[in-house]
Amino acid sequence: MPVSPSGRLTAGPALLRRLALASLVANVAIVLTGGGVRLTGSGLGCPTWPRCTDDSYVTTPEMGVLGIIEFGNRVLGILVGMIALATLLAVLRSRPRRLDLRGPALGVLGLVILQGLIGGVSVRVQLNPWVVALHFMLSMVTIAVAYGLWRRVRVGGRTNRDVVARPLRQLAFVITAVSFKVLVLGTVVTGSGPHAGDPDAGRTGLDPQAMSQLHADSVALLIGLSVAWWFALRAVGAPRPAVRAAAVLVVVELTQGVIGVVQYLTDLPVALVSAHMLGACLVWLATLGALWSTRTREPTGPRSAATRVVSDDGNERPLVGAQP
Questions:
Q1: Mean pLDDT for the stretch of residues 48-76
Q2: How far apart are CA 113 and CA 115, in angstroms?
Q3: Mean pLDDT, range 151-164, rounded to an integer
Q4: What's the chain's average pLDDT?
Q5: Residues spanned by the domain of 288
Q6: What are phi and psi of 53, to 5 degrees?
């Protein structure tokens, strides 16, 4: 970090962008490694929490590979928290001052901490499938907040303006809600089927075939809404970024759908389940990108965050080179 004239460390826009992106990538990575823990049956490789065993915070040789995998995921969780903390500190020391980033940065850190606690609870309750599902869905919420932080950092401190008609923006919110529902139902399917994370872990008791059908129906609804939204954006001559975001969303959804069908017909091989988990993250990111594409951010005037900064003494002053 550079040093201000008062001797304090400061964070510029470039550092904020790197940290925000690192936080987003780390939160996606922890979902994938968590899936690896489940698919390798390592969910109880460390049988307790916060210690790995009753006598050790780290894995021991007696616990073998499963202990190493589970403990490695815990270490990565700590790294995700450190990145979130570094991002928050950089936001607090940002120059020009970015007050609009404090809430999202604090939100990401708080969610990461909460995620760690729920992960610990899931171990304590022997991988109860409902707690594991909550663990996954909280990751999706964290990714959404981290994505919003990254987008805000990229465009600077500005105000929002819709770039599509209100009905089309409302449809984008509906698609986002349906996408989230698809993720929720995906966790229900997982909780009723194999790959529980441990041979002795309980299942929901729900019919796996019925849950898979319900999940597939929701996916079909999501794809249909997304295709309709893409056509509608093209019909009204919406800005190119919005049309492109809709097209990306449809392509990612179709790819994820194909993977889902193939994994179902081939009795859920580990490789395809892993790809499906990555696809779930990509569908969620594409959904968020489509929603964000319906608005743009632009300067509002001489007192916007884009044209004024706060000095170390707490007083506002014009940003050098900014236009009123």
A1: 92
A2: 5
A3: 81
A4: 88
A5: 158-197+205-300
A6: -130, 175
Q: What is the distance between the terminal CA atoms of the chain, rounded to a whole angstrom?
A: 29
Beta bridge partners of 308: 318
H/E stretch holding 91: helix 64-92
How long is the chain? 324
List phi, psi (to 5°) of 140: -65, -40
Range 130-159 average pLDDT: 91
| Residue bearing the bigger pLDDT, 49 or 6 | 49
pLDDT value at 177 more than 80: yes
- Kindly state the helix (H) or strand (E) to which residue 105 belongs, with its residue range: helix 102-124
Residue % of the chain over a pLDDT of 90: 74
Q: What is the pLDDT of residues 81-116, one digit of tens each?
A: 999 999 999 999 988 888 889 999 999 999 999 999
53 and 163 within one domain = no
pLDDT at residue 157 greater than cutoff 80: no
**Do 210 and 138 share a domain, yes or no?**
no
What is the model's pLDDT at position 201?
87
3-state SS class at 130: helix
Are 47 and 37 in contact by the 8 Å Cβ rule? The answer is no
In degrees and rounded to multiples of 5, residue 84 shows phi and psi of -60, -40
Scanning the structure block, which residue is given the tokens 């919406």?
A: 238
**CA–CA separation, 210 and 92 (whole Å):** 49
Q: What is the DSSP letter of 308?
A: E
Q: How many angstroms separate the CA atoms of 290 and 242, rounded?
A: 7
Same domain? 171 vs 260: yes
What are the start-end ranges of the H helices in the chain? 13-39, 64-92, 102-124, 129-155, 166-192, 208-235, 240-265, 270-292
225 and 213 in a common domain: yes
| Token pair belonging to 308 | 């004024």
